[in-house]
Amino acid sequence: MGLALVGAVLAPLRLDEYSGAALGASLRSNPWPYLLALCAAALWALYSVLSRRWAADAEGGAVPLFAVAAGLALGALRPFFPAPMAWTVRPVVELGFMALLPTLVAYAFWDRAMRRGNVTLVAALSYLIPVLSTLVISRYLHVRVGWNVWLACGLIVAGAIVCERAVVRAAA
Predict the structure, then answer these.
(1) Does some domain include residue 20?
(2) What is the rounded distance in angstroms from the CA atom of residue 123 to the CA atom of residue 44?
(3) Considering the entire predicted model, what is its pTM?
(4) For the chain, how many structural domains are there in total?
């Protein structure tokens, strides 16, 4: 878990800011991203574990409903966080695509796999997600990704693999 945590901490830092002082300054200047990421990680872990325990035999899932509710809630909060934006056809199509295809389908499959699938296999395949998503996003946005982000992805994947191996050994 420590490897993955170090990766998660390194990812948002600028290339020249690797120090405890830089991390402390970043936390003091804007703690919200770190706090929200911590909450999201804890909630996702709880969801993944508890959905298998409480809803393994359920036919439907709440993921599509949750995704729509989260989108509406974030849309309602948007006026309170002003930022430059321009609604043209392209961002509307991109938003619709991201909401319907990869996001909704991925969450629906994840929900089903966590409730009824081979959790070890699902977890093993999910280790590649930080690397693949970083690659796709950087290509799409034409953003050069620094070595720190690739190192962070590698640490997150390595941490997940170490944790998975420990769980498999403990279960055996």
Answers:
(1) yes
(2) 13
(3) 0.55
(4) 1
